[in-house]
């Protein structure tokens, strides 16, 4: 809750204790269930790796201007193509170690602290596929505090990666939303798609084209223009009956916790990055990727840490 709504540990503990008191779980006679802010702080770090903990702490140090001796002695981690947090860690570490930082370094730090880190932990706190469009909208909303020139550069990057703004992903997220009006709109849209499906029968494979994002809207539902976008039904709902679909208006659709980002994606990013550093040109890069995957398939490596354990 603290990460999602940007509340402090103290505020989060106070809200949680108030709710428990309203439900009678905490009383004057029974106070063992009181949530301490320090316990809440520790729980927020329970599922973070070393790099993410360092990122959280050093970002807090930049915001407060206070760097503890323990943080100063920690290592920011090696730079890796698929571990972008370590690059952010090193930039922030360089910033707090520089007496007179350059304007370029200050700009990078401002972007990392106010945009990159909040989005990172937002995705970390909401990793399932139905939260993907909301995570995207959260990132877009943070960009509005940047200058117009910066927004143009970053918005182009977001537009090229607007997969979670696709109507199929938006509809799936809308069906699982807590707002009944949003679920109603999703149900009506899918029913209209089914009625007009005869218009698209000639298309054997549905095209998955990235939609144009509307960066000035106030809700994630309106990130695309529903009137002009090519809308298809999500594969997940394609086999749901009309009755089950209509029931989604009364209660959110229960969807398995499919992750919006997987380790396989990280491996692919690493392979593409390494190929781009080795060859020049799209055809050469694609050929190197295919040959690498073929080589791995024919001659897999089985070495792991357990093979070298004493």
Topology:
Blueprint: H1 2-5, H2 9-22, H3 37-44, H4 50-64, H5 69-73, H6 84-96, H7 103-125, H8 132-143, H9 148-160, H10 167-175, H11 180-195, H12 242-247, H13 263-278, H14 282-298
Outline the structure in words:
This protein starts with a helix and ends in a 12-residue tail after the last helix. The chain folds into 4 domains: 1-46, no CATH class; 48-125, no CATH class; 128-261, no CATH class; 263-292. The protein is an all-alpha fold and 310 residues long. It is globular. It has helices at 2-5, 9-22, 37-44, 50-64, 69-73, 84-96, 103-125, 132-143, 148-160, 167-175, 180-195, 242-247, 263-278, 282-298. Helix 6 packs across helix 7 (103-125), helix 7 (103-125) packs antiparallel against helix 8 and helix 13 (263-278) crosses helix 14.
Termini separation = 43 Å
Question: Which descriptor suits the 3D outline?
Answer: globular
How many domain modules?
Answer: 4
Please compute the radius of gyration using only Cα atoms. Answer: 23 Å
What letter string, H or E per element, gives the SSE order?
HHHHHHHHHHHHHH
- Number of separate helices: 14
Helicity range: 55-70%
Low-confidence stretches: 1-6
Mean pLDDT: 83
- What is the total tally of β strands? 0
Strand content: under 5%
Structural class: mainly alpha
Largest sheet: none
The quaternary structure here is single chain
């Amino acid at each position: 809750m603290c990460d999602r709504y940007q509340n402090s540990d103290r505020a989060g503990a106070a809200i949680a204790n108030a709710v428990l008191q309203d439900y009678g779980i905490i009383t004057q006679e029974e106070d063992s269930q009181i949530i301490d802010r320090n316990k809440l702080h520790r729980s927020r770090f329970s599922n973070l790796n070393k790099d993410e903990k360092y990122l959280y702490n050093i970002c807090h140090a930049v915001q407060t201007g206070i760097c503890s001796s323990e943080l100063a002695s920690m290592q920011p981690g090696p730079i890796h193509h698929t571990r972008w947090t370590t690059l952010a860690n090193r930039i922030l570490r360089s910033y707090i170690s520089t007496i007179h930082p350059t304007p370029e370094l200050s700009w990078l730090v401002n972007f990392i602290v106010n945009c990159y880190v909040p989005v990172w932990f937002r995705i970390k706190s909401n990793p399932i596929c139905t939260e993907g469009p909301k995570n995207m909208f959260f990132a877009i909303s943070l960009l509005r505090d940047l200058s117009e020139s910066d927004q143009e550069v970053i918005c182009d990057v977001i537009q090229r990666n607007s997969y979670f703004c696709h109507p199929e992903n938006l509809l799936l997220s809308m069906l699982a939303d807590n707002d009944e009006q949003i679920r109603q709109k999703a149900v009506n849209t899918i029913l209209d798609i089914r009625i007009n499906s005869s218009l698209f029968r000639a298309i054997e494979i549905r095209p998955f084209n990235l939609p144009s994002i509307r960066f000035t809207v106030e809700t994630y539902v309106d990130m695309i223009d529903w009137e002009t976008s090519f809308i298809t039904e999500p594969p997940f709902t394609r086999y749901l009956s009309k009755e089950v679909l209509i029931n989604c208006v009364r209660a959110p659709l229960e969807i398995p916790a499919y992750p919006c980002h997987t380790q396989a994606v990280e491996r692919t990013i690493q392979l593409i990055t390494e190929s781009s550093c080795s060859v020049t040109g799209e055809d050469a890069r694609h050929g190197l990727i295919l040959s690498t995957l073929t080589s791995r398939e024919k001659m897999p490596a089985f070495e792991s840490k357990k093979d070298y354990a004493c």
